[in-house]
Amino acid sequence: DGGITQSPKYLFRKEGQNVTLSCEQNLNHDAMYWYRQDPGQGLRLIYYSQIVNDFQKGDIAEGYSVSREKKESFPLTVTSAQKNPTAFYLCASSPSGAVAKNIQYFGAGTRLSVL
Amino acid sequence: LAKTTQPISMDSYEGQEVNITCSHNNIATNDYITWYQQFPSQGPRFIIQGYKTKVTNEVASLFIPADRKSSTLSLPRVSLSDTAVYYCLVGVDYKLSFGAGTTVTVRA
Question: With an 8 Å Cβ cutoff, is A101 touching chain B?
Fold first, then answer.
């Protein structure tokens, strides 16, 4: 089955700790994305990557880091600098064509809470 | 990116048609209009995309007038399972803007 796999489903972070959220896709998509969603709100873009070994900051990149060493994988690290990390994190991927990139495929999400 | 405005919420009953209108007055010539659906605690799901006139698929229809300053997503004969948040996005970009969306509640 093709799709986006996010893990873990739930994650707890202690004060001062860095945590990494996993995102893997087998859709052969060039572009991948990370979003944050707070309760009752829309999605906000954290980082996106158009191609392997390249990524750009989204609207709320501070306190987060990413890597794109493989086409299939786009892990997100929530660093200790992110003071309010509690949220629902969504990973997505899309083809890189002119219009096709508007059609993003999302994973099931990771819910991060602070202990 | 073009700014979009859509109603915060809408109520409907099973079997009715639901129409959600999205305003996008500063849409650019190359922009496409894309709609997503999101259920609680799940990622958004692509519903439909269009450029002008009317687009229909097995889930919904999208109506876009000639001036393209608005668009209407039409959900025919909704059921309880159509209760969700619906997002209207405008642009052709890696940086799409998911606003607050429209919460559609379908009642029995």
Answer: yes
Beta-bridge partner residues of A78: A19, A64
Residue A115 has pLDDT above 90, yes or no: no
Q: Which domain holds residue B19?
A: 9-107
Is residue B75 a part of any domain in this protein? yes
Q: How many whole angstroms separate alpha carbon B104 and alpha carbon A18?
A: 37
Q: Which of B32, B45, B101 sits opposite A102 (nearest CB)?
A: B32
> Within 10 Å of residue B82's Cβ, how many Cβ atoms?
20
| Set of chain A residues whose Cβ sits within 8 Å of the Cβ of B99 | 42
Residue A101 has its nearest CB partner, among B42, B94, B100, at B94
Distance between B61 CA and the closest CA of chain A, angstroms: 17
Q: How many domains does chain B have?
A: 1
CATH number at residue B55: 2.60.40.10
Look-up of token digits 């605690």: B41
pLDDT in tens, A43-89: 999 999 999 999 999 999 999 999 999 999 999 999 999 989 999 99
